[in-house]
Amino acid sequence: MWSELLAFAAGVFLAPAIRPLLRPVAVEAIKAVMIAADEAKRLSEDVKEDIEDAAAEAKAAHAARKAEAAPPPPPPADPPPA
Questions:
Q1: pLDDT (tens digit per residue) in 34-69
Q2: What φ, ψ does residue 79 adopt, rounded to 5°?
Q3: How far apart are CA 78 and CA 82, in angstroms?
Q4: What own/partner pairs with CB < 8 Å and gap ≥ 24 does 21-29 have?
Q5: How far lies 5's CA from each of 10, 14, 15, 16, in Å?
Q6: Per-residue three-class SS string for 18-71
Q7: pLDDT the model gives residue 82
Q8: Could you give the dihedral angle defined by the CA atoms of residues 6, 7, 9 and 11, in that order, rounded to the nearest 10 degrees?
Q9: I need a labelling partner for 7 at 20 to 30 A (CA). Which of 15, 29, 45, 68 fits?
């Protein structure tokens, strides 16, 4: 228990002296996280585009295969004599 109190007291008294030293480190860490987030967003957009392209290609191939397999439509019926 004494060690926790001692650590707390040291933190309270040393915080004003350490704060100016830690601020640049915190700013750089936040900047690195923002850069990583931008890169992750760009990569996810690229993957999304690739998946959409593959889905469109598969849909077109499926439609072509379906059109080939469908029987031809029957010829139009002759109109009844007037």
A1: 999 999 999 999 999 999 999 999 999 999 998 887
A2: -65, 150
A3: 12
A4: none
A5: 8, 14, 15, 18
A6: HHHHHHHHHHHHHHHHHHHHHHHHHHHHHHHHHHHHHHHHHHHHHHHHHHHHCC
A7: 62
A8: 160
A9: 29
CA gap 44, 38 in Å, rounded: 10
Q: What is the pTM of this model?
A: 0.54
The residue type found at 11 is G
Measured CA to CA, the distance from residue 68 to residue 57 in angstroms comes to 17
The tokens describing 9, both together, are 């007291």
**Over 80: is that where the pLDDT of 73 sits?**
no
Q: Amino acid letter at 55?
A: A
